[in-house]
Structures are given as C-alpha cells and as structure tokens.
Amino acid sequence: MDLPIELKSASEKLVVGYKQAQLKKIAQDLSDRYRNESGVGKVLLSKDIEAAVYALVRMPATYGAVSDALKYALEYFDGSISTLLDVGAGSGAATWAASNQLELERITCIEREGAMRRVGETLMKEGNRVLANARWISSDLTTTKVTNSADLVVSSYVMNEMAKKDRQFVLDSLWNSAEKMLLIVEPGTPAGFSVLRDSREYLLSKGAHIVAPCPHESVCRLSENDWCHFTCRVQRSRIHKMLKDADVPYEDEKYSYMAFVKQECNRARARILRHPYIDKGQIGLEICTQNDNRSTVVRKKDGKLFKVARKAKHGDSIEIE
Ligand SMILES: C[S@@+](CC[C@H](N)C(=O)[O-])C[C@H]1O[C@@H](n2cnc3c(N)ncnc32)[C@H](O)[C@@H]1O
C-alpha cells in the first residue's frame, strides 16, 4: 500500500529547507513523546514543523491502517456513505484513506492542535475538489460535544491519546454524530485494543451493531492479556527511510479497529486472527467465529475453501462456520 502521489509530494514539500539532521531529531523526539506520554490527554506536538514531520513519518502507516479497516468494514456494510467526519484528524490520513474508497461529497475534520490543522489543510488543498474543500474545525473532543454529523465518523489513533476518564464522553458524542457508521482505529497494541474492547462493550449496550471485525456481538472471547490486531504493509519513501534509519523499503503497521453501525447488519462468518500457517497441502488458521475462537486446518480436499485460505491473510474474513 502506498500514499496517493499528490499527498506524498505535498508532504515532502513541507520540510524543504530543513537539514536531514534537524528532521531526524524532531522525528526521534516525537516518537519518544508518542511512546511515553500518550494516554493521559497531553498535547504531543504544537509546532508546524513537528506536524510536518508527523505527516512524513506516521501518515503512511495510519493511512494504511484506516484503508484496511475501512475495506473490511465496507465488505459487509449495506448502505451508501457520502459524508465524512474525521475526528482528531491530525494531518488528515484517515480522510485521504476514506476518500480513496468512497465517493465523498462532504468532509469535515475536527482537530485540537493548530499545527496539525494547518498541515492537514495544506495537504488536502493538493487533493480532489472535495478534499480541498474540507471544513476544518478547531475543537477539543474531551470538553466539547461534537455537533456535526456525517454518514461515517472516523476516529483514527486518537482515543488512545486521551485520558481514560474522558473516553466515554467522547464515545457518546461520536456515536451520536455517526448517521451510519463509526470506525475507530487504534494502534495494534494491548493498550490500543483495550480502548476498543471498552468501546465495544459500551456501544453494544447502547444498541450499536458491529459490522467488522467481529463475527458476533457477544462478549469478546479473547483473554484479558490477548489483543485482536492486524497488520498492513506500507511502502517507505526515501525520506521515510532516512528519518527512521530503516533498511527495508516497507514497514508493517500493526493496528486494531472496530466498525460500529446503526442498523442490523451482515458480518463475517469467521475472521482470521493470526498469520495463517501454511504447510504442504494444509493451512492452519486461528479464527474467531460466531460461536467460538479456535484453531482449524483447511486441507486440499476442501477445494474452494483451500484456494481461498491459501490467499488469505490475517484480518480477512473466511466462510467457515
Ligand atoms: C496520533 S494523531 C492521529 C492523527 C490522524 N487521525 C491519523 O490517523 O494520522 C492524534 C490526533 O488527535 C488529536 N487529538 C488528540 N486528543 C484530541 C482531543 N481531545 N480533541 C481533538 N483532537 C485531539 C491530536 O492533536 C492529533 O492530531
């Protein structure tokens, strides 16, 4: 997966004139801050150059994660989506990802930090007409109820930055704003998944339905120390490799997600939870189904199912009872 070319070149333009060493230092400081100071509602960046470096370093991964999560959500969603509300939009990765898969007519982005808003808005001016006309709103989700609404509300890598005590207020506000779907994407870590597990429990109690990834709406069967997460592979640009001191031309982003919808919906019969184990003539799968979580083996004699399983990756749905 790769960023749209116009987004890639626009984000590289933001750091023209800066020395490599300066940019690397900013990237390193940001990475330390995101690792050590997240989850308590702290402001993690405030300068425009920091937001620009955030865009270069993190947008490919968050764009990839939202693209995958949205693709899985739309696989079983029976409706149309033409308006988007991206909350904690940052530099706009989730909006670009949604805009690539949906025929959007209206985009609204809510973001607390001025630096992120300026960078996000500048980048979107390089996109199509709807991206360029996106409405950017300055607001703090933890103190101000969202009054805008849209078919799809996306919160990508935001809730995990907030203090736990604020999340229920935000969740109520986002669910209220979503006319059809609320997609929450978080880092594929125990902390990221625990935000989703809590949100799942809370929104199910409010009458929400889950369109993906879960094949069921009962209590999540994963043990407390396990976490449901998937991986997407994204290309690294030359500048990304430089900023991260990376050798390989790609990075694997681990993410977790949950797509809630307002109406009863279809969903996967089963979801593949781990990398398939491929052996001669058989494929081992860890699956979550409507009734249980289990390991299963698909063999050549299973015909079409074997062909599907051979191409499947973890995160995919599969037609196994
Ligand atoms: C890790 S960034 C993710 C940005 C973008 N959604 C993405 O996926 O790349 C988190 C963003 O959420 C914003 N944010 C965090 N808490 C917020 C709050 N209480 N209200 C509004 N925005 C918030 C931050 O300023 C930051 O831009």
Poorly predicted sequence stretches spanning 5 or more consecutive residues? none
Approximate shape: globular
Ions, cofactors and other bound molecules: S-adenosylmethionine
**What is the number of domains?**
2
Major β-sheet profile: 8 strands, mixed
CATH topology of the largest domain: Rossmann fold
Which whole number gives the mean pLDDT? 94
* Strands, total number: 13
- CATH architectural category of the largest domain: 3-Layer(aba) Sandwich
**Strand portion:** 15-25%
Helix fraction, binned, reads 25-40%
CATH class of the largest domain: Alpha Beta
Helix and strand string, N-terminal first?
HHHEHEHHEEHEHEEHEEEEEHE
Instruction: Calculate the terminal CA-CA distance, rounded to whole Å.
Output: 31 Å
Q: Count the helices. How many?
A: 10
CATH superfamily of the largest domain: Vaccinia Virus protein VP39
Based on helices, strands and strand pairing, what is the structural class?
Answer: alpha/beta
CA-based gyration radius: 20 Å
Which terms would index this structure?
39% helix; 8-stranded mixed sheet; alpha/beta; 321 residues; globular
Describe this structure in words.
- The protein has helices at 5-13, 20-37, 48-76, 93-101, 114-124, 129-132, 164-177, 190-205, 238-244, 304-311, and strands at 83-87, 106-111, 135-138, 150-156, 178-187, 209-212, 230-235, 250-261, 270-272, 277-279, 282-289, 293-299, 317-318.
- The protein has 321 residues and is of the alpha/beta class.
- Strands 1, 2, 3, 4, 5, 6, 7 and 8 form an 8-stranded mixed β-sheet that branches. Strands 9, 10, 11, 12 and 13 form a 5-stranded antiparallel β-sheet that branches.
- Strand 11 and strand 12 form a beta hairpin.
- Helix 7 (164-177) packs across helix 8.
- Residues 58-59, 62, 88-90, 93-94, 111-113, 116, 140-142, 156-158, 161-162 line the site of S-adenosylmethionine (SAM).
